[in-house]
Design goal:
- Two copies of one chain form a homodimer.
- A six-stranded mixed sheet of chain A has the order 4-3-2-1-5-6.
- The first copy, chain A, has ten helices and 19 strands.
- Chain A is elongated and about 70 Å long.
- The relative contact order of chain A is 0.11.
- Helix content of chain A is 36%, strand content 22%.
- Chain A has two domains: 3-128, Creatinase/prolidase N-terminal domain (Creatine Amidinohydrolase, Chain A, domain 1, 3-Layer(aba) Sandwich); 132-351, Creatinase/methionine aminopeptidase superfamily (Creatine Amidinohydrolase).
- By secondary structure, the first copy, chain A, is an alpha+beta fold.
Chain lengths: 352, 352
């Protein structure tokens, strides 16, 4: 059986689960490499992927005997079959943050489940710690993002619209990677004060500030980087805010390491922002992997510690409504010794 | 208050619901035009959109006094506020097919809800019947899809890869619309036997069959069309299967009208396929709107009737594993008098 399925089974044993239903396609891909509609059943004896006629041919071409996964077409599964999958299971786990209330009720009925237990943490915890192959993929996605940003610095000039710049990024990612990891943000001038601005037809103007939040995918794994750049010299206020964000981003970089407390790191940024009459309005960062946002979330509510081989973002930002915003973000690998930034684009005040 | 919010309130009254939580962003967009993270509360007295600091500026710029929507930043809402929203509500509705099990439990706790009732059907039913503005948007998305297909017929030639063709479609949609409504399918040769094939690096060859499933978005509304075309004259077997699919697609077109039973329509296609030793392996169609797949699903399980101003797809397909597949699909408006096809590209055997 592949290592990841084995790891799930080990964690299930620790939680006294005799069976589990995996419905989230991202978790299914993580455990099996299958990208198709269906559900994965982990029963006492087998790993079973139930799909439908549209995917049978494809799925059978993906799995290897080593995986130990049985593939079934749902149209061949009877009512009795469903009720037998978890027949002697006292507790069956499910993904409570993915499964809808409606599916939850349906699974209990269809599989005649005695005790349906919230067990998504098994997958969340496994996926938080990246293995060599995953880190290599994210690293590659980060390199391509750095290359894209290098190209942008030479390309962006007044007159281009935010949409045109976003499209340049999308094209680059389509050529060099599997496309964008999320909708690229290009927010210029006063638009930069909205952390989640959508690229508009606004033209870049002299003296603009531009926030670009970008990332791509390699073998499904994401990169995530933000840079805030200036068209011509920044104002005094912009310089002050930029330096405040940059200093905090660097400070966080120094604090990231295996064992560091997430709440403490976040608190120190929030305090420094407050001292300077600013607010930290969004999370300081998040895990990155097969999804652009995964565990852990770096915020004040998270009292857990960073662990070796987590991949997270470090992205403090300050937003002055109706005026401008600054965010600086890197994708970072947590190691025993400290942070290893996987995105390496320059972040000292960039003037184009 | 806007018509759609008023319609929800009317339906809530019929179900004895005094409050409702709307969490699905598509439903929130449908009811309010807001595209931001947050939840919409329909309480006895008010419509309240709770969001966070990242979106306050944007949301306030979208809503009008006529909407009668109060916008709140979640950081200003106390524990007591949450418990007071539905204080004198006996029953509060929620979207059981969207809300996860984990959210379900969290809402009950946070809002101190007495009786949390599955009520997603309210939104599903409202969204099934399109108003004038919605139909105009889908119509426009269909026109652009027809224009794109016209361009393709002049562009596709042996030597191009599936990915290159898919990219041509994506570029067209990015220029003329809001991009793809779903991941474009370009499946050539034996790949066409997989209904959900992903565009590959396979080059188009002489004598190929090519299935192209494509659609774009206008103001959030989708179009959906599939054509199967031939590079050079089809084989006898291909012609036979193509005609079988086409005849059934046309027959369905004749049967679609306000009041027609969905199960009956589907059954007649399935029977004709079976008589000809073929199988209908996927649904005959689905609703189209703000989402590419919405209610109603056209399959044997659906014993409901079509209604005026539904927009649905009509997409029979036959797939011969390892060999080839044929699917022909249009987006169709249901009227009192019959079907009005919104995609109008030719569908008699197309040879390029």
């Amino acid at each position: 059986m592949n290592d990841r399925l084995q790891a799930v089974r080990n964690k299930m044993m620790g939680l006294n689960l005799q069976g589990m239903i995996i419905a989230n396609p991202v978790n299914i891909r993580y455990l099996t490499k299958i990208e198709a509609e269906g559900i994965l059943l982990i029963t006492r004896k087998e790993n079973i992927f139930i799909t439908d006629g549209r995917y049978m041919e494809y799925v059978s071409s993906i799995i290897t005997p080593f995986d130990e996964i049985v593939v079934d077409d749902q149209k061949n599964i009877s009512k009795d079959d469903y009720e037998n999958f978890f027949l002697f299971c006292e507790n069956v786990g499910f993904e409570e943050k993915y499964v809808t209330y409606s599916q939850y009720k349906e699974y209990i009925r269809k599989f005649k489940i005695n005790n349906f237990v919230e067990a998504e943490e098994i997958l969340i915890h496994l996926r938080m710690i990246k293995d060599e192959e995953e880190i290599a993929n994210i690293k590659r996605a980060c390199e391509i993002t750095d290359a894209c940003f290098k190209m942008l610095k030479e390309t962006i000039h007044p007159g281009l619209t935010e949409k045109q710049i976003a499209r340049t990024i999308q094209d680059f990612y389509r050529d060099q990677a599997e496309g964008e990891a999320f909708e690229t943000i290009v927010a210029s001038g006063e638009n930069s004060s909205k952390p989640h601005a959508v690229p508009s037809d606004r033209q870049i103007q002299p003296k603009d500030i531009i926030t670009i939040d970008m990332g791509c995918k390699i073998n499904g794994y994401c990169s995530d980087m933000t840079r805030t750049i200036f068209v011509g010299a920044p104002t005094e206020e912009q310089t002050k805010i930029y330096q405040l964000v940059l200093e905090n981003q660097k400070k966080v970089m120094d604090e990231i390491r295996d064992g560091a407390n997430i709440k403490t790191i976040t608190k120190s940024v929030e305090s420094d922002f407050n001292v300077n009459c600013q607010t930290l309005i969004h999370a300081l960062g998040h895990g990155v992997g097969l999804e652009i946002h995964e565990a852990p979330t770096l915020n004040l509510k998270n009292d857990n510690s960073l662990k070796e081989n987590m991949v997270i973002t470090n992205e403090p930002g300050i937003y002055i409504p109706g005026n401008f915003g600054v965010r600086i973000e890197d994708t970072v690998l947590v190691t025993k010794k400290g942070a290893m930034s996987l995105t390496e684009s320059e972040k000292e005040c960039i003037i184009i």
